[in-house]
Design brief:
Blueprint lengths: L2 E7 H10 L1 E2 L3 H6 L2 E2 L3 H11 L6 E7 L7 E5 L5 E5 L3 E2 L3 E6 L16 H4 L5
Antiparallel strand pairs: 1-4, 2-7, 3-6, 4-8, 5-6
């Protein structure tokens, strides 16, 4: 079961739970799809797009549960990133965990990430 990840403001996620689905963050609405990262991409995504931002959650999603609305498309340097062209059904979510800032200002990824990925290194 491959997992993909969404980094999200806690309030946006709480709103999604109340609604029963996640419709996306403002950047997702602007781009026309919900941005996700693979495990290999999530640490860099946090550093690049959420540097210094607190009160975030990391949402783990079962990629296979999203069907054909999930597409892997080129982005940063040609890397394939998962994009969802639909609302995210909460039934596809496997976990939601805090993504706190560490003392160094970088996000602290949960223990489920391999050590090299949590440290921002290669897989």
């Amino acid at each position: 079961m491959p997992l993909i990840y969404k980094i999200c403001a806690r309030k946006l996620w709480r709103d999604a739970e109340a609604l029963g689905r996640f419709t996306g963050a403002p950047v997702d609405h602007a781009d026309g799809y919900i941005h996700f990262s693979t495990a290999d991409q999530a640490v860099e995504t946090a550093a690049r797009h959420f540097a210094g931002v607190g009160d975030l959650v990391l949402v783990s999603v079962e990629a296979d549960a999203l069907g054909p609305a999930l597409r892997y498309e080129p982005s940063r340097g040609g890397a394939l990133f998962p994009h969802l062209y639909a609302d995210l059904p909460l039934t596809a979510v496997r976990a939601v965990v805090d993504l706190p800032l560490g003392a160094d200002g970088r996000h602290v990824f949960p223990h489920v990430f391999p050590d090299a990925l949590r440290a921002g290194g290669p897989a």
